[in-house]
Amino acid sequence: MKILVTGVGGQLGHDVMNELSLRGIEGVGSDLAEEYSGMKDGSAVESMPYVSLDITNEKAVKECILSVKPDAVIHCAAWTAVDAAEDEENREKVFAINEKGTRYIAEAAKSIDAKMMYISTDYVFNGQGEKPWEADCKDFAPLNVYGESKLAGEKAVCANLEKFFIVRIAWVFGLNGKNFIKTMLNVGKTRDKLNVVCDQIGTPTYTADLAVLLADMIVTDQYGFYHATNEGGYISWYDFTKEIFRQATELGHEEYREDRLAVCAVTTEEYGISKAKRPFNSRLDKSKLVNCGFKPLPAWQDALRRYLSEIEGQ
Known about the structure:
Helices cover 38% and strands 18% of the residues. It is an alpha/beta fold. The strands form 5 sheets. The protein has a 7-stranded parallel sheet, sandwiched between helices. It is globular. The mean pLDDT is 96.
């Protein structure tokens, strides 16, 4: 089986390529850069085939997919800068990447009868209430431009393909790139007090764990909509931050001790700053995974422990 993976310069695409390599599956990576420009960690990604691809170029997408002839495409590439997406000068580019680029890939995949996996987000919903969003829920009401563009991408996949997986994730962290954990660790080194939002609720997703699930899924014909985050319960960003610092302290980083660094819970309104509206409810119902025979991701607490150990060695 040959799988084309877009966005291999990012957190998830990098880990998906590594997982495919571990399984002996032929993977071809793609991203905008002329050469692979992701994390230089000696992983399989660096030695696997790579093609430079601008997914907003319809002709280039068609030529790439007709040339590679993949059996499946795992589409990880996306505009993910949520606040920057709100800037009027960026809106056209955001939709060019998240909607048009996705549509071009879906159309090209259809032309060679390849299956497609599209990575989406809880931001397609309105983020209200406390009930977890079900995978097949169609109550779409994005709060911001990023959510609108990802929903448009979902619709493009559905309109063009029958053999598709749409996998919604939330609160992503991985080795290759920026994320909330790295930000907290960096900020925590230089401050004695941090304010962190306590009324936005969800569950983190470790890209290394997610990559295992995606590799499990892509070789099947269990098509449809899925939700995937780590297990371990729903938490706030405040809860997550406290556990990040607790585990970092256990690893010997004294600067994150509770008596040296105070973490204060604040509401979204009190915190302010953000250009884009953020969902209060990012809870995702993942029961469909088990119902369709897929293995849930490990608990987020365990994922965090493994992740912190990994970045220790970087």
